[in-house]
């Protein structure tokens, strides 16, 4: 089930109301059932995968807690192998097989590994990581093993964050299922606000940008360099609104029932460096990689000093790329970020001195512009499905200069002719609204700001947003198939 | 706090009611609109067509056969129901709706395309159906295609006009008789185009250098026969017309012969006339076409004149 | 070695590692309080501490350091055995 569907519009209030009507001891059964229904709207049989990993990690948790030092580690490894194994099988096997075939083919041999004709289980990468976080934290002694099987299953399957995160930690989430939640007006309002804002970002901003730029990425040959540049810089906003919108809906949905999930995005476009960007973008994933990959890895290799950090960054971001998708373009995307962080690590002192000579406002503005440009440009690898496709787009980008300097009015008028000007203007206005909101959010939490406003203003804003989602949100693909009359 | 909730509920209910009211006005307004999406549908629903001759078919009917020329030469009243982009099943649905609201015609010129028997998958140009979603026939036929109208689109206020604010505006303007409303250049459903030659055919040739085979789908054939049976039983004379097509295009359609033979078969079986212009001289000259399957306005005028004089011996003028 | 003595030496390791003479650490000090002490440089600092005191931390011990106090306790245990 998708959050931006009408099924969810029905599902969410029904589940929430029943949740509050039930006595506390039955609530876990209700939430677990609801989560199963939510998951099974996609491909029902895949629920077996979840059962498999849930049982293994549940047992592993208890075994790890009771075992001695050496066996503890062995149980952890077994659980990690089971989780990573499932992930590899469903997500990476085809990619691996195709590349092995290619390699052998180049060297004259043939392997012809069979390819699997299966769809990726929805949310697999997210809940697998969340499950691994549990066994690792139990191993580290930061989390007590959960004895209640139903509650543990709920930790992995909790429907708001099941399919797209935030990737929670057991210390933050597990105990919340044991607590008796009372219906709380402030939580309900805060949650609904978050859902509304998330839905607005997803259905109105992201999907509207998508409708504008998808044709450009699908057929870049047919578009001017200007159009391609616009598409590249709009895409990062689409990605952000899509993903952070989804996270906000997840956080809001949980909040209405009284659960507090972690922040996943914190105004990423205000970052003054790539390193900072990764502290603000998809925080639940970047902290996961930091806590469970980068940090232990560098700790083990600490005698290598700086080179441990270099190696750690490159490997972590390589894996992060791979996590995002089984293709070379994602791997390259991740590795470029690894390299960027290595660069920033080595040049930190120099850059601080250099930029320190500038007035503070210019220093900040310049840092933000450079960071944003880097993020937007690298996102091409994220969007173009193949590395060749991405390179084609890069090759076309500089063409904008010759296009803009052309004095022929006919050629000039063609420039924007490729993109629908009205839709483009709408997108720019929406992004302006988004960034103004972010600017405000930087000064005080949005929730507080909205809460301070007079009732009429608040209700007016809610209605305006709900209304624009309803009338301008994109809900079916059909809406944007162009009428060819 | 409770007051806020109360206010929100009151305002919400009011807004919802208001939206239903607006939807009513928009639907009614669009049913009067002259916008090209709706013009022909509105003529059909208002029951004012009642023509002697109905032209039925896809874009190749819509763009090729001029009722004005037919009327002048044949001395009767004709109307073009040609439906851009759709195969026979949707053409048939439109004809059924026509019969619900108009007198049955004496003659039907059924334009034949090579993709006559191919039913498309998606709900092409869905906007034209929006004001008529409470019509059973429209609901049934549109529900067969991908991107069919969903429950919320059919029952939630204004939701079907999501992302089509221009239609809301047009509908309101027409309903309240204010503002500048749309016009169209159709004459009795006929909309010739004076386009220059576009390059779609060159792209088609590049994509399919060995030509293509047009699918013949069972359900489309079945409905075509239902249609012919209906016409035979109700004393409506069908005239099959294969309108001109660019010769190079015809050569690339590998099963064109089979499809034409099928129509020939129906012509014999039902004793309906078949006028085949597939190899007409017009098809040899690109200047009459704007792409390989569509005549431009000049070509359409020449062709309809030819068609009308060929039809003259077989068609009786209006009494 | 006494805790005070360890803290004093630890302070010098910090100053050398982050190349700043104005650093003064207390058991409550954490990464947020020291310029340059971040998630990346953390392990270099750990390595410096190990070299200075000629000790070796276990991985699990490092993972549990939240502030200078945690380090202090661990160093004290190792140097005094």
What does this structure look like?
The complex is a heterotrimer of chains A (485), B (319) and C (81). Chain A is mostly helical. Chain A has two domains: 6-181, no CATH class; 187-476, no CATH class. Chain A has 21 helices and no strands. Chain A is globular and about 70 Å long. The two termini of chain A are 35 Å apart. Chain B is α/β, with parallel strands linked by helices and 319 residues long. Chain B has a single domain (2-314), classed as SGNH hydrolase (Rossmann fold, 3-Layer(aba) Sandwich), CATH 3.40.50. Chain B is 47% helix and 8% strand. Chain B has a five-stranded parallel β-sheet, sandwiched between helices. In chain B, strand 6 (289-291) and strand 7 form a beta hairpin. In chain B, helix 1 crosses helix 8 (165-176) and helix 4 (67-74) packs parallel to helix 13 (297-311). The longest helix of chain B has 29 residues, at 2-30. Chain C is an all-alpha fold. Helices cover 54% and strands 0% of the residues of chain C. Chain C contains four helices and no strands. In chain C, helix 1 packs across helix 2 (42-53). The longest helix of chain C is centred in the first third of the chain and has 15 residues, at 3-17. Chain C is globular and about 35 Å long. Chain C starts with a helix and ends with a helix. The model of chain C has no long low-confidence stretch (mean pLDDT 85). Chains in contact: A-B, A-C. Chains A and B meet through helix 21 of A and helix 1 of B.
Helix and strand arrangement:
The complex is a heterotrimer of chains A (485), B (319) and C (81).
Chain A: H1 6-21, H2 24-40, H3 47-66, H4 69-106, H5 124-140, H6 149-157, H7 159-162, H8 170-178, H9 185-218, H10 225-256, H11 274-280, H12 283-300, H13 306-324, H14 328-356, H15 360-383, H16 387-396, H17 399-405, H18 409-417, H19 421-443, H20 446-452, H21 455-472
Helix pairs in contact in A: 1-2, 2-6, 3-4, 3-5, 3-6, 4-5, 6-8, 9-10, 9-19, 9-21, 10-15, 12-13, 13-14, 14-15, 15-16
Chain B: H1 2-30, H2 36-46, E1 53-56, H3 59-62, H4 67-74, E2 78-80, H5 88-101, E3 107-111, H6 136-142, H7 151-155, H8 165-176, H9 200-207, H10 218-233, E4 237-242, H11 247-252, H12 256-270, E5 273-276, E6 289-291, E7 294-295, H13 297-311
Parallel strand pairs in B: 1-2, 1-3, 3-4, 4-5
Antiparallel strand pairs in B: 6-7
Chain C: H1 3-17, H2 42-53, H3 59-63, H4 68-79
Helix pairs in contact in C: 1-2, 1-4
